Amino acid sequence: MFYHIRSHALIPLECAYKDCQESFRTPQQLVRHHEAVHRNDPLKPSAALFTPELSPLPAAPEKLPAYMVEARQVQPPSISKDRHNTLGPWVGTKRYQFISHPAE
After folding, report:
1. Burial (Cβ within 10 Å: 0-12, 13-18, ≥19) of residue 30
2. What are the C2H2-type domain coordinates in residue numbering (predicted)?
3. Which member of 28, 56, 57, 75 has the greatest number of CB atoms within 10 A?
4. For the segment 41-51, what is each residue's pLDDT rounded down to a tens digit?
């Protein structure tokens, strides 16, 4: 998860908990802060929902390019069973390595 956050997040990483103004340079620092300081604290409220103001669409031109009117079939890229068997376990370890499971 740290690597995923690092690949997408903007620095500084701000704390998501109510009444906390802390910010951090790395995902690890942020996670340590959350675990040490905010175990059961409430999160900051999300942005308020709103209805966007939509303007009417302009009229379509008399002649449309084919790509705008032809339905194209969408399908996932093909991958060989061998390649899938090689990549599958690796993706699983990268995706789930930081998830902690509660003890039963």
Report:
1. buried
2. 13-43
3. 28
4. 998 888 888 89
Return the residue matching tokens 């409220």.
45
Please confirm whether the linkage preceding 65 is cis (ω < 30° from 0): no
pTM of the model: 0.39
**Greatest CA separation for the chain:** 65
Question: Domain map of the chain by residue range?
Answer: 1-45
Residue type for position 75 = Q
Alpha-carbon distance of 48 to 54, in angstroms, equals 18
Which residue matches tokens 């900051």? 44
**Residue 70, SS3?**
coil
